[in-house]
Target: Magnesium transporter MgtE
Amino acid sequence: MEENKEFEEKKPQDTEESGTENNIETQEYEIPEKADYEAEIIDIIRGNEPAYVKKEKLNDYHENDIASVLEDLDVNERRRLYALLGLDRVSEIFAYLDDPEEFIEELDNETAADILEAMEPDDAVDILDELEEEKSEELLQLMDKEAQKDIDLIQSYDEDEIGSKMTTNYVSLSLDLTIKQAMKRLVEQAADNDNISTLYVKKEDGTFYGAIDLKDLIVAREYVELESLVITSYPFVYDHETVDDCIEELKDYSEDSIPVLDKDNHILGVITSQDLVEVVDEEMGEDYAKLAGLAAEEELEEPLSQSLKKRVPWLIILLMLGMIVSTVISMFEKVIVGLPIIVTFQSVILGMSGNVGTQSLAVTIRVLMDEELEFKQMLGFVFKEMRVGFFNGLIVGSISFIFTGVFIWLVRGQQFMDAFAISGCIGVALALAMLISSFVGAIIPIILDKIGFDPAVASGPLISTVNDLVAAVTYYGLAWVFLINILHL
Amino acid sequence: MEENKEFEEKKPQDTEESGTENNIETQEYEIPEKADYEAEIIDIIRGNEPAYVKKEKLNDYHENDIASVLEDLDVNERRRLYALLGLDRVSEIFAYLDDPEEFIEELDNETAADILEAMEPDDAVDILDELEEEKSEELLQLMDKEAQKDIDLIQSYDEDEIGSKMTTNYVSLSLDLTIKQAMKRLVEQAADNDNISTLYVKKEDGTFYGAIDLKDLIVAREYVELESLVITSYPFVYDHETVDDCIEELKDYSEDSIPVLDKDNHILGVITSQDLVEVVDEEMGEDYAKLAGLAAEEELEEPLSQSLKKRVPWLIILLMLGMIVSTVISMFEKVIVGLPIIVTFQSVILGMSGNVGTQSLAVTIRVLMDEELEFKQMLGFVFKEMRVGFFNGLIVGSISFIFTGVFIWLVRGQQFMDAFAISGCIGVALALAMLISSFVGAIIPIILDKIGFDPAVASGPLISTVNDLVAAVTYYGLAWVFLINILHL
Model:
């Protein structure tokens, strides 16, 4: 909660819209009740009005809202609804379904294929991928050649290639058109196309030439040449580029759509900003899952076996690493037996070094994702992480030196000097372990990235366990040398 | 790396575009070199051609690419470039700058204010927020009333309210227009507006009536009524809703833009899908940072003091919690002294329970963000997490029972029965701790969410430390009861 405070920047207000309420907490600020669109839609569907009135009324609702009510209807109501709304609207609604399989399954194959055919190909692929392989193949065979070709193309890409995220729905114009002809071509294509904000221009040989902003076309005077509206150095991506590699670029351009080309510069499709929202969401979700030591992101409805499959691999690796840590600790049996009090603080040292490492790791991964760093910047970054680690260690080490010193002296009844020798050892070990952990948390993802691995595989739990090792050696080593061998405690 | 494999779904290809290369690894697949737009732009700027030719050539490049080269130019080159390109283009370029402050600082206030005035208000706010308070105030005073009003409005919202993310740039139409008049109004407004894909219709009293898809207007026949194109139950959000509350809804609709209304249903602005990309990115970045135990997301260029401020608070809380764990462990001094071998495996038990807890936490936070769960679903979810924890514990516990048993028997030279009694204790403690940790990792964020806190504040390190406590009690408790009191080892 408190975290947000530093971002808040309250300004004196002089706009009428949100006048005096400024000092009232957001939560208490009265947000009006919204109409319950879903309830309204169900009322219309179940009402007694003639079909054409129902259809008219339902036209005023967003496909996403209609999609949300499908699961509240029974099979017959759904069938009647589809008939009422017509194929195009139903296909748009299906694109919004969270779990389209069940609704596809209850249709005959012909109808299902028609619906999928009328959808944007990338949405159709999303649904087909959810179906059984066999069913998916059957439906695909029933679609027209055009739709099949688009779907095959999108399915031909690996999940991590940007081509798999594109839609093949875009408006293209040829360069020799006049403004008026271009507008006419646009109107013709607009009916079948959702993405008309940016229009793409091809050369005579069919290769990508550039893009026209729809706005520029609309406001253009009739006598100017179409060519003058074209941005020829418009950004694009190649179909086989990985999502990881081009996502930052796509975000930076913040365009309505960016074309996807094959290696011969023919335009295959576009990535729309709606696609980009999904891609960003997925990519970050994956990184987020990996940071937490999951093999991949999990869904709510996932079966137990899937969940186990995503979690067990890391756990077994971590168990093995943990065993190494425990073997190292067992080498310090003299310290354990001679100074059991040292053992009781082991969890603090190991825990804190893990925490610091996880922080460094998270910062490093985000920096690696967002920026292309040169070697010098990289060094500077690692150095900065170490400075952060040093000062964190200094602060936390000092606090724990005083705190545990007093605790051991007064509560555990050790002599004053001995108590502070022990707490000194704890404080120094803590500070050292935190310094080294910051370094480890920063350098491991950087090295992974350099040798071509996804830095996000260096999960937090992995870094924590590696740092356990570092911290255990530092702590018990110090205790053994300083407390046992030098001070003979 | 391996994680992606399960998502890959290679299909036989029959499209000509990506024919035979399918089996070649993505990394090896030849992705053509892209033209270096930035180098080209610099060459043009530094070239000897007359100004009008330069301007003509630069018109073909995207503003984002021109923005990227600004830092490679010197002050005079930048000044000449601004003069060449004109105010509108320069303001678009400035919207793409990562660190606009320095470029704003080198301009006189008049010019800077003109540039900001010509930008979309939300982009201008982003820049003003980066400047010193005083400078920002000066520039604001120099802008025209219209721009000031828009900027004040956007700045009046807290960072976590959706109003702070909107742009006030949108096209509005009144309901009484004919199709032809509406097109004319659109052309008039399009010149100053970037967001024309969805047009907003107001009632006579100025309240929000609905939305028209630009596509529908373009393909509409002239004689139909404008009203028939309007989707009246179009989704919208209220200005003071929190980003957290409405982001899932905004994503679900996957629209080009969604209007932001005040509580009297007047439209104040729109959230475009480009805004949404940014918002999703920010929100997930914040959650990601919190999961790793950072108070907020960090930037590469951030000063040391800022980084410390974001990391130290959690570390101190975790230190205190760690001290509690160590106090609990110290209560088992008899186990420590009597069975030092138990101590050497402490790090494994605590570490693994922390890891399991972090996994559960990450899954739970994502589920809470993505779905509105009812109480029953919530229970089901927690129960599922516990089942995952149980089976994870069973698998990992069994492995470690056998593995450590053999290890203690053969390497540490304990008697066979004793060795497996100890390893049994370790295995059972591990399984139990993992079960409980899954529960803790799932229930804590759910409770936080229920009582109105952001569940993401339950960071991984926090959950790990809480689970350390659980694991320590379980492990040492079991060892004390079973090994010391029953078996008298």
In short: The CA atoms of residues 11 and 22 of chain B lie 9 Å apart. Residues 1-27 of chain B have pLDDT under 50 and may be disordered. Chain B has 21 helices and six strands. The first helix of chain B runs from residue 37 to 46.
